[in-house]
Design a protein that fits this description.
Elements lengths: L3 H27 L4 E6 L14 E7 L3 H11 L5 E4 L13 E7 L8 H11 E12 L6 H17 L9 H7 L3 E9 L9 E8 L6
Parallel strand pairs: 1-2, 1-4, 2-3, 4-5
Antiparallel strand pairs: 5-7, 6-7
């Protein structure tokens, strides 16, 4: 399912949300991107159009071949951009190589959010930041959370290991990042179980080993 057809279906399934809110959220979030930037789980390239001129070098990591193919077609000829085949849990890049790491709609589907964020920490320079936009568990909405828990096993099989009940903001904080901005908002034009979202900025402190 997650070959070329799956990648096309992914874009189609989010097209309404992109037009309604996600596109604006991506644009606002990525205004904070600068210098050397890594995007994990770059998917089919929904963020490409929103990166500002302050980005000097951009590395896009995407492990799915179908999504990478669509991503490369969207890129065209951009010598400052490199696409690599890599998961978020194992990033084959040096320590402290990036000023910014971007994660949008990714940490729901990785095998281990903790390992993924440990890798983000490793490749970030001290003082660097993680820009994130993720759908999460419906905190404060017990009725919706019950539906998320009920549907999650089937949803994972249908949606490329996508989890509905992750408390991603807590994991980011537990890894040692300093949360500078974190907003919760409902994603429009998607099923109710996918609507709760977080987005913001988390920084690796300067005074870390």
């Amino acid at each position: 399912m997650w070959g070329p057809l799956g990648a096309w279906m992914y874009d189609r399934s989010l097209s309404g949300a992109e037009a309604e809110c996600l596109g604006d959220w991506r644009r606002e979030l990525l205004l904070g991107a600068r210098g050397d930037v890594l995007e994990i789980g770059a998917g089919t390239g929904a963020n490409i159009a929103h990166y500002p001129p302050s980005v000097r070098r951009l590395v896009l990591a995407e492990p799915n071949a179908g999504m990478r193919a669509r991503l490369k077609r969207k890129l065209g000829d951009r010598p400052e951009v490199t696409v690599i085949d890599a998961t978020a849990e194992v990033i084959p890049l040096p320590d402290r190589a990036f000023d910014v790491v971007v994660s949008t709609m990714v940490l729901c589907s990785v095998d281990s959010p903790g390992r993924s964020l440990a890798e983000v920490w490793r490749v970030l320079r001290p003082g660097g930041c993680l820009l994130f936009l993720e759908h999460v568990a419906a905190e404060g909405r017990p009725d919706r959370l019950r539906w998320q828990r009920l549907l999650e096993p089937v949803w994972r099989c249908m949606a490329g290991n996508c989890h509905l009940t992750r408390h991603t903001l807590d994991v980011i904080a537990e890894m040692g990042f300093t949360l500078e901005d974190a907003r919760r908002e409902s994603i429009r034009k998607v099923p109710g179980v996918v609507r709760p979202s977080i987005r913001g900025v988390a920084r690796r402190p300067l005074s870390t080993a």
